[in-house]
Every structure is written in C-alpha cells, then in structure tokens.
Amino acid sequence: MTFVSRCDRGVEPVQRVEDGPWRVGVLFSSSGYTAIVESTQLQGTLVAIDEINARGGVLGRPIEPVIYDPGSDPCAFARCARRLMVEDRVRTIFGCYTSSSRKAVVPVVERLDGLLWYPTVYEGFEYSPNVIYTGAAPNQTCVILCRYLMRQFGTRFFFVGSDYVYPRETNRIMRNLIVENGGSVVGERYLPLWAPRSDFLALLAEVRSAAPDVIFSTVVGEATVYLYQSYADVGFDPKTTPIASITTTEAEISAMGADVGEGHFTASPYFASVTNRTNSELLDKLRARLGEGVCLNAAFEAAYFQVHLFAEALARAGSTHPDILRPFALRSEVEAPQGRVSLDPATGHAALWARIGKANRKGQFDVIFETREPVAADPYLIGTGRGSALCPT
C-alpha cells in the first residue's frame, strides 16, 4: 500500500512492472469538516481491497491503493486526482464525498481519461462516461422520504442545508415534490460547511418561529452533529417535528450521541441493521477485526461494494484502461450488504434498495420501510422518479 497523509506531500515513485499490482487511487478525507463520514468511506474501500487481496487478488495480482487525504477541500481533490493520474499513473480512482469535490474531479478524469467511482448519495442530474455512480440518486431517496413525511407529520417543511451545490440542488428537488403533493416550504436556510454550533442555535430559533411539521436537513459533515445537538438544546420534539435527511448516517449519530439522534429519520439504500446474510457476515467479520464498537453506514457500504464491482469487472476485462474496463463494469453486479446491486449501462448509476430508517436509542436505525427489490436509478427524474409505486403508504 502506498500512503501519504496529505496530497501536497511527496512520495517516492513506485517501480511499475507489467505483471505488478493493480494500482488504484483512493481520495477520501481523513481531515477537515467532512472527515467524520469520509473516513468511513476510506475504511470501506480498504476493507474490500483487503478481502480481495486475501483471496489472491484479481487475476493473481493484488490491488494496491495509492491514498491521498484532500482535507475536505475541493481544490485539493482536483490536485490529488491529477497527481494520481499523471505522477502515480493510476486509471481508476475511488473517491469524493461532497458534490463540490466530485465536480472538481470530473474534469480531471475526463481530460486525462480516468474512471472515478463515486460512492455517495447525490443530487442527480449528471452524467459522465468517466464516472461510475454507486451512491443513491434522488428517486432512490427523496421520493419515498417526502411521501412518508407528508403522510405521517404534515405538509409544512423547513429546509436547513450546508451551503454548496448538493444541498441546494436536493432542496430544489424536494421543493418540487412537496409542492406537487400539496405541501409548502416555510423556510430555507444555508450555513457554511464550517459553521460553528452557535450558528445552529440561532437558526433553530428561526425554525421555531416558522412552525414547520418537518425539518429537512441537507447539512453534512461535523455540522450535522451541531444541528441535531442544537435541536435538542432548544427543546424540539422528534415525535412532532422530526429532522429528516438523506445524509445523516450511523457515523453522525454516534458523534452526536444516540439520545440526541433518537427519533429522527433518514432515507438510504443501507443501514447497518439490514437483515441479510451478506450484511451479517460483514458485520461479524468487522467486529472480530475491529471490535464490537465498529460503525457501519451507507457511506462505508457503497465504498465497500463498489470495489467488489470493480474487481469483478477487472477479472473479465484484464485491464484498468477505462475504454476496456467500463463496458465490463456496467454489466457487473454483486451481492452487497444492502442486497443485490447492479449498474445500468445507460446511465452509469447503480440500481439500489430504497429504505427509510428511524434512529433508535442504540445509535442504529430501525428500518420502517423498504422496497421489495432494487430501484433503478433515474438521475434526471424523467421516468419512475415520481412514481407512487416507490412510495410507502
């Protein structure tokens, strides 16, 4: 494994031989304001690589990750991606959490002919032949969550988000869904990714004045902890006015405290509480390796299964060159911890399971709704995106 803690630090060149390891880039932040969740993506990636290498690698060759820490800075993501492709000579990159970092990296992989595997729930409305999207698209999260919340709690929503492209675009989609179903958005506020806890206390006073039925959060990173803790401090009750999100995972619940997170909702393809054989085996393996306190979440799971998708495609393609690998990748499927997943050749997005979870006192999510089969991604919401068949009654 080749590792540097920050992208700006130098590494000695590694000798490259024709039959040497399959070298791949890994770009997740271990520092900065989104490290709380990106560190789980890094862990999921490395666990999958270790599993594959323990079985003999791919075609007898191990996978060797070249890891950089972009420090939650989109500009650093772009620099690191370029360095991986130009200096380290890798073609495949696993990485990016925020849409800002993805949008910084996409032009790099397009210009230098690489392949980015992106394992994060996102706002949709994007396609690149140089990206494999394994995180959830809006029709796999927003649609079911909106319908459930309006039926259970009411029609008045207040949007609270971090100030960058993903929250603003996701809230645009949610606003359309809410209004189309007879609801209203009674407030919409954005705070910087690095906003302190005091800013959220002030914001929640404004939320209280608007008297919403639901607070819809697109806050990410450590600011998520501040939002939920401030919510508890000002005396909101999740039984009547919950926070609902598609980004709050077990990692953020652990950081804020299970008592603070209890009663709030998340829509996601995966929760650690999902019951199937693949998930149970992974949990047992990780507990034996890392202890009982191991925290799995959707970010870990997508980063984990996309490496297995890559390995399956690589075994058939025999090359990491995107023109050779991508057609095989888009015909790949694996038994993931969330259930069977596959990639759509038309969109480059994954068919994923749609679930709603309610956080409990143990810091986990009780699954209160799930589809009977994977939901095909509809990143432009032009087909099944608003279909009632996906929505819980």
The low-confidence parts are 1-5, 9-18, 384-390
Number of DSSP helical runs: 12
What CATH calls the topology of the largest domain is: Rossmann fold
Order of helices and strands: EEHEHEHEEHEHEHEHEHHEHHHEEEEE
Overview features:
alpha/beta, Rossmann fold, single chain, seven-stranded mixed β-sheet, globular, 12 helices, 2 domains, 16 strands, 393 residues
Annotate the secondary structure layout.
Elements: E1 2-3, E2 22-27, H1 35-54, E3 63-68, H2 74-86, E4 92-95, H3 99-112, E5 115-118, E6 131-133, H4 142-152, E7 156-162, H5 165-180, E8 184-191, H6 197-210, E9 214-218, H7 223-233, E10 243-245, H8 250-256, H9 258-261, E11 265-268, H10 277-290, H11 298-317, H12 322-329, E12 333-336, E13 339-343, E14 350-351, E15 355-359, E16 365-370
Parallel strand pairs: 1-3, 2-3, 2-4, 4-5, 5-6, 7-8, 7-9, 9-10, 10-11
Antiparallel strand pairs: 11-15, 12-13, 13-14, 15-16
Helix pairs in contact: 1-11, 2-3, 4-5, 6-7, 7-8, 11-12
